[in-house]
## 1
Amino acid sequence: MRFFLDTANLEELKTGARWGLVDGVTTNPTLIAREGVPVEEQIRKICDIINGDISAEVVATDTDGMLAEGRPLSRIHKNVVVKVPLTRDGIRACSILSGEGIRVNVTLCFSAGQAILAAKAGAYFVSPFVGRIDDTGWHGMELIRDILAIYKNYGFATQVLAASLRHSVHVMEAAKASAHVGTMPFKVLDGLFNHPLTDKGLEQFLKDYEKAFHGAPVVR
Ligand code: E4P
């Protein structure tokens, strides 16, 4: 599973890049607004940090407006994927942009039926929101499994980008389901490192080594 960071924060992206773990980035209007920098400028900076698919979302709600925003967004950098919402206008925009060779991420997907529409419209990614479905008292991960099964039945090329992942278990379950991509906030990526037995084991190794060799280096 490819790991995307769901953030527009440059420091978080730099840290993720230093770890060598970030295969791409998803942004949305909320995340861009949080950084307070215009979309085009921020996406350009993100493309300088991460060499992978970078989703940049339109804010227009009608097809013509989405096309007018999506086309220039796609020209910012070859890695930009234009993100449109899963609405009637968004699906129409997806068909047109995909027909022009522009890669589209159809976002705000909450049902397998919606995911079929995205695939039929030629989406490059569909983004089902796992955590937000969990918030409604349902099983978000079931949606990931259902979409993957349906896409496999018909050989759809659209990749399933498991979004709204809120914790390590979401990441592991999305990977178990074979989602193509998991996008997660920085704190979720950071949390994947943690295990108390790793900390305890390391502490014991260092203590035992120090007792025997009194600070001598491993190699000279
Ligand atoms: C996906 O592309 C969205 O930006 C994101 O995953 C939404 O996550 P949230 O529900 O935690 O806001």
Note: The mean pLDDT is 98.
## 2
Amino acid sequence: MSRVAYVNGSYVPHGEAAVHIEDRGYQFADGVYEVCEVRGGRLVDETRHMDRLERSLGELRIAMPMARRPLGMVLRETVRRNRVRDGLVYLQVTRGVARRDHAFPKPGTPPALVVTAKNIDPSKGEASATKGVKVISLPDNRWERVDIKSVGLLPNCLAKQAAREQGAYEAWLVDEDGFVTEGSSTNAWIITKDGALVTRYADTGILKGITRTTIFDLCKREGLRIEERKFTIEEAQNAREAFLSSATTIVMPIVEIDGRPVGNGAPGSIATDLRAKFHEVAEIV
Ligand code: PLP
């Protein structure tokens, strides 16, 4: 089955999909993106992803490429044309194409929009969750506005690659004071011995994950307590459980941090339960 991408108004074969060399996303990483889980052909938490897209664009003074409703239709059409049942839909908006100059192009330059979608075999994530995953820690050397879901991901790529090279699933990033901010593409969580879920508060120092927000809803329903505060790698290693979250990993139990087992070294029961129940509270349309 051949894949199809949406590029600035047209659906084109994935292998031929291209943007101009002076697209500001290509030149300056001057753009933002979103990733939505697709489940049974439907979008998970679309409203929250669209809210965050609008916020990211607003912070960078890039216009929405089209209104929300037609954008939702493009996302669904891309999912449909790629016959995605379970997987993800990716969208990227850049400040558009203009002669290379660091300053913004002239007003009215249309933002560029690219949408792709792909199937992901759900059994792969389930296998990882059953075994649990390993994380390593690295210094957080990103800029100070990582609350914006920018396509400028070079430090994140370097961190993920370092994790892969050390046989780990994710790298947890640690700030100058020794506190974990988040993972290279996921939010970071621990569960204390008395059963409280701890995750860093969402200021400009982390990306406020949509999965994170929906986990808050699930915890409320389940009567679980959340503490939004900083924690260290040492606290995480001594925690009852640890896990990471994102639209593509949902809740992924962590069994080892920097070579030390978390809890009894097996996926924790609370994280495993949250993973099983996540889609009961998520918006799926
Ligand atoms: N933190 C970072 C740096 C990310 O890149 C992502 C997702 O891509 C997340 C957290 C999790 O966000 P979400 O739950 O919206 O996927």
Note: Residues 35, 156, 182, 185-187, 207, 209-212, 245-247 surround pyridoxal-5'-phosphate (CB under 6 Å).
## 3
Amino acid sequence: MTVAAATPIELVQGVYATLDERLEIGRRRLGRPLTLAEKILINHLDDPEGAGLERGVSYVDLRPDRVALQDATAQMAWLQFMTAGLDEVRVPTTTHCDHLIQARDDGKTDLLTAIDGNREVYDFLASVCARYGAGFWKPGSGIIHQVVLEQYAFPGGMMIGTDSHTPNAGGLAMVAIGVGGADAVDVMTGFPWDVRWPKLIGIHLTGELSGWSAPKDVILKVADILTVNGGTGAIVEYFGPGARSLSATGKGTICNMGAEIGATTSVFAYDDAVARYLKSTGREALADAANAVAHHLRADDEVEADPGAFFDQVIELDLSTLSPHINGPHTPDLSRPVADLGAEAEREGWPMEVSAGLIGSCTNSSYEDITRAASIARDALAKGLTAKAPLLITPGSEQVRATIERDGLLADFEALGAKVLANACGPCIGQWDRQDMEDGVPNSIVTSYNRNFPKRNDGYATTHAFVTSPETVMALTIAGRLDFDPANDTLTNDVGEEVRLTVGAGEELPADGFDPGEETFQAPPVDGSGVEVSVSPTSDRLQVLTPFPAWDGEDITNLAVLVKAQGKCTTDHISMAGPWLRYRGHLENISGNVYMGAVNAFTGEVGTGLDVTDGETRAYPEIARRYHEAGIAWVAIGDENMGEGSSREHAAMEPRFRGARAVMARSFARIHETNLKKQGLLPLTFANRDDYDLIGPEDRISVVGLADLAPDTQVEVVITSPDGATTSIAMDHTYSADQIEWFKAGSALNLIRQRT
Ligand code: MIC
Ligand code: SF4
């Protein structure tokens, strides 16, 4: 398989060739016109005639066109793939090095430090890609989603990626879905990808953005309306005249952050803005091919005329009246207009001073974003202003970096004292070796990123992170305060005058085209069979996987309660990133962080619980290790939207490795729930949500009647308290018949091993 630095036009033509026939099948089967998301999904069904199409109910098998992996999740995905016994990936796959670069000094220095410090991991990823026919994007190439947007995404395509922000490619009318590594391995080994036929949320955009409002404000507002789990099990489809007024990268921003509402993915239609972006990024042939089937790359006309008949929920948003928003701290759905933040910060006691402003991440690092922010930097300088807080910029890709350097935009930021970091995730994922602040000091930062869970950026629980558009980040960083509203307030300049910042003026695309910058792609050799992939047995960063044991056919009884988490328990709480990214390829070592951030529902403490073997209080990872060594099986209990956030399957593999058998919660985030199933753990939800309250720290939990586990049935769980009293409760699950086989085999990977 040739995996190049772009999607071959033949692949795209192959996808377009089946549209006529398959969409007719879809219209006939559903008896009505189709939305765009339905069109793309139907065109990628393994069995378009036979697949169940009941929203939120049927499980379907899909055939994605591509797979993308990023370095922090790729290691585990490849370690799993390697055990499948294949010679080559069956679907075009790329690996992107972006998460492991720590931000400290400047882009160049930090990149060299990362190449040196992560050599073993990069060598592993480069060689494993060469061995199995995948493309490898070296460190420095940029953030996976920006590179995918520039090189691989195409209208009407479907891809999966081992990162929750894969939906970024929805900006180019692609159905792009974030998954765990085991899902990626299914597709890389030639099996279809299994997902519930999604519900559909339609967002009707009218009007046009103006003033300080930006595409980011659309999704900040949608997050306000739908909250962090409002999109669960649904694809969000944007349509209407407002949608057609946005740039392709602006649409990407909106789709990207759909991950924060738990949506399966988000998508916009193909339009002129997308065609312009494709041409500007050197893909004229692709734009021509898309133009020829453009009517298939948007919803049928009836949808816009009567959206209520097609979507499970329709949200109306008028861009002309949408004010700039800012969300946070600690959760991406806590939203308000920028103008109201000051009063709220005052009330809540959030530090009013801005201690840093950060622009970039996969959400907002396009050429347009950077030009808008740079214009504000120029304006501020011309008006005698400086930035009151440190400003950090991460370009999204080498192509964006080289282009903004050529166009003098980096110089604009530097003139304002900004530091330009490597083309990488950096401070967005705790890879920020922050020198100017200490843990324990309450402080506020503003970012153009997408997540703001505690400790997410600098590792400090006392940092309050607010997410907003790059324009607003610039304004608040220049002002140095949260209570600054650039639309209405003035700032005092160096000669004591009151001046007003001018609204950012961006350029959608570079007038002189993109500068590709340094060559950062490694194509696989034609025959990779001779490439050696080595994993040292003494490595502390990579470890060959041992298959998890198959189910023994018995009920699961007498489980200890390792953790009962209260409130938010995101994947950052279950398997922290930042310094722990170091161990993403070493299951045993990374298990040293398991549930470290969970809030103990019995004590309110973070990361510690009762060790039932001796009644001591210990850190969860320590208790998990001790239970593992003592052969004590256990369960983790979660609250609402358990496993919200990232796609990292470590949040499922670590519990499994340390002897968990089930995870029980009030509700789960989609990717985490699938990851648990794939790794052979039972994710169960309380049929009566108050039953969560029944579980005590010293109770023992049994899951009975497992031999009868079947789709659409409940599971009986027996809680035995220390005095021997038992309570029986009903729990729900979402297993399909096929997925039950994953549980029986011990993991989905064990099944693949049997089949390849
Ligand atoms: C994130 O933004 O949380 C990450 C880091 O990109 C994760 C993936 C990971 O944990 O490696 C995600 O979003 O899936
Ligand atoms: Fe990287 Fe942050 Fe985007 Fe995750 S959200 S892919 S950490 S830039």
Note: Residues 72-73, 99, 163-165, 178, 429, 451, 577, 645-648 surround alpha-methylisocitric acid (ligand 1) (CB under 6 Å).
## 4
Amino acid sequence: MLRCRRSSPPVRPRLGLISSRIDRPPTEPSVPEKHSASSDLPAVSTTSHPIPPTLHISRHPAVLHKLAVLRDVATEPKKFREVVRELSWLLGYEALADARVRPLEVRTPLETMTGHELADRIGLIPILRAGLGMVDAMLELMPTAQVWHLGLFRDERTLRPVEYYNRLPDSATVDLCLILDPMLATGGSATAAIEVLKRWGAVRIKLVNLIAAPEGVEAVTTAHPDVEIHCAALDRQLNAVGYILPGLGDAGDRQFGTGRSD
Ligand code: PRP
Ligand code: URA
């Protein structure tokens, strides 16, 4: 059960719009769309920061609903893990929408036709620890994907990423890399991961996050404007110790039950 109180009438998201790249004519100022309670679209973001064209914020009703469950402080680790998995599937589905396919001859019981098979070799790069919870769902979606783990944690004092695990082979073995990490906060971890992958030889890289902060989006898009970001929400801001507001707390601790109990 969600604890959120419903304060406005239900809103009906636009049907058929799975991923919302906020496309605008070049002359229009880059501001997020605002939706009032009377509009038929839910707000995609709780910030007034500009939304760059490489940022895709999902508006799928299932994503919106599950995200509220995930944010709820009363959601226990078991349910939290389940919802991380479900959201990852939905965001992964959107992020992989432009993966390349090639024609393939298929014999149905009735005749032969031209179908398609995946042409891109997909690499999933979960950032340890919290990104681990996103892997299984993505593998369901793309069973042939390769999984390359990267271990990065954020130094609590400096907020800078520290790399502690990387077993990537000498050169890139995939065409399209999806970096999996529930949280994009300062963007330090994501930027470090992208740099590791680019040094590896990766050409096409996307980030899949559950929640992004404007600070993190700006850091990534400034350093790597070629990297697209798929997320379920763009939140308001970071707090003084680098946590996303309103956010969901510590994604690793909430998945693995390691938060402080006091
Ligand atoms: C969290 C999160 C990201 C990072 C985001 O990991 O999963 O990797 O912080 O913050 P940033 O954008 O400021 O770099 P954390 O360092 O808590 O490690 P964990 O996954 O092991 O808990
Ligand atoms: N890492 C998290 O797990 N949560 C935040 O809000 C920021 C970084």
Note: The pocket of uracil (ligand 2) is lined by residues 130, 183, 185, 242-244, 247, 250-252 (CB under 6 Å).
